[in-house]
Write a structure and sequence with these properties.
The protein is an all-alpha fold. α1 runs antiparallel to α3, α1 packs parallel to α4 and α3 runs antiparallel to α4. The termini are far apart.
Length: 91
């Protein structure tokens, strides 16, 4: 059925966006402290992209959404552990 094809394509696109955002966030998290702190806006952008992917993944695959949420929570914990903060109102 066409809906299965669209679901598969949607999942494929989500995985690509997720992988890209994860790679960027991991890169920023690997930087020295000064460079990491200068990259906070970039980190926040990737975290927000990943949060959006989690939300959309729920429409495609609840299992995928759970997996992404677990990964995002782990990365967010690392981000906060490095001294990263979110804009006021988003905590």
């Amino acid at each position: 059925a066409a809906s299965d094809v669209y679901k598969r394509q949607g999942e494929e696109y989500l995985k690509k966006v997720w992988t890209n955002a994860t790679q960027y966030l991991n890169y920023y998290l690997s930087l020295s402290n000064d460079r990491f702190l200068q990259s906070q806006n970039d980190c926040i952008r990737q975290i927000m992209i990943m949060q959006s992917v989690c939300d959309v993944a729920g429409m495609v695959s609840p299992q995928l959404q759970k997996s992404y949420e677990k990964q995002l929570n782990a990365l967010y914990t690392l981000y906060r552990g490095r001294g990263g903060s979110m804009p006021q109102g988003n905590q």
